[in-house]
Write a structure and sequence with these properties.
This protein is of the alpha/beta class and about 210 residues long. About 30% of the residues lie in helices and about 25% in strands. It has one domain: Alpha-Beta Complex (Spore Coat Polysaccharide Biosynthesis Protein SpsA, Chain A), CATH 3.90.550.
Length: about 210
């Protein structure tokens, strides 16, 4: 089976105050950590960067992304050969994703799922609101917070992106096409860097012995 990975690093970083994927953590830029672990798990890696950025990364083919996350994933898909059987999509803003997560989602797809995503239990009570009014309280025992990397059969992912749809993650697009997506155990340490405070915590976490990749 041929496995390829797309590392999505084309965001503008509006909440961070700039493109966070170029920030350094432990001597490497965030996207470099993501490429490093993806290259260990896949036969090939496509790195999607902002169109205006000219950057190189070892072990990755670099392409320009689009305005939306889904556009950037499609730019990565276009660079992946038709021989790929499984495609893993990972966000560069999650530098602490370990190899075990890549292996887990890939193995779940090889076992027969159309897609596989890491999920961690939701600690807080989650409510749906309309304006200031609570409309519904969800049973958190049935909820998970979803992470990347996410793996899919190449055919399911390509089908899900046909017609240029948009969604917050690729699993939602595969689900909309009737694909079977399963959840594997996520990792609480695999958090997403969104704000400068998250970066400060990442630096502290590494100082306490936290491992990347």
């Amino acid at each position: 089976m041929e496995v390829w990975a797309i590392v999505v690093a084309a965001g503008s970083g509006a909440r961070f105050g700039g493109p966070k994927q170029f920030e350094k953590l432990g001597g490497k830029r965030l996207f470099e950590w993501a490429v490093l672990v993806a290259a260990q798990a896949a036969d090939g890696v496509v790195l999607v960067l902002p169109a205006q950025k000219d950057a190189r990364a070892a072990d990755a083919h670099v392409v320009a992304g689009g305005d939306r996350r889904s556009d950037s994933v499609r730019a990565g898909l276009a660079a992946i050969p038709d021989t790929a059987d499984v495609i893993v999509v990972h966000d560069a803003a999650r530098p602490f994703a370990g190899r075990h997560l890549f292996d887990a989602v890939i193995e779940a797809v090889l076992a027969g799922a159309d897609g596989a995503i890491p999920g961690v239990p939701v600690a807080d009570t989650v409510k749906r609101v309309t304006g200031d009014d609570v409309a519904e309280t969800f049973d958190r025992s049935a909820l998970v917070a979803v992470q990347t990397p996410q793996a899919f059969t190449a055919s399911a992912l390509r089908k899900a992106h046909a017609g240029d749809p948009d969604a917050s993650d690729d699993a939602a697009l595969v689900e909309a096409q009737g694909g079977r997506v399963v959840v594997v155990a996520g990792d609480p340490a695999n958090y997403k860097i969104t704000t400068p405070r998250d970066m400060a915590y990442a630096e502290w976490f590494m100082g306490q012995g936290g491992k990347i990749g």
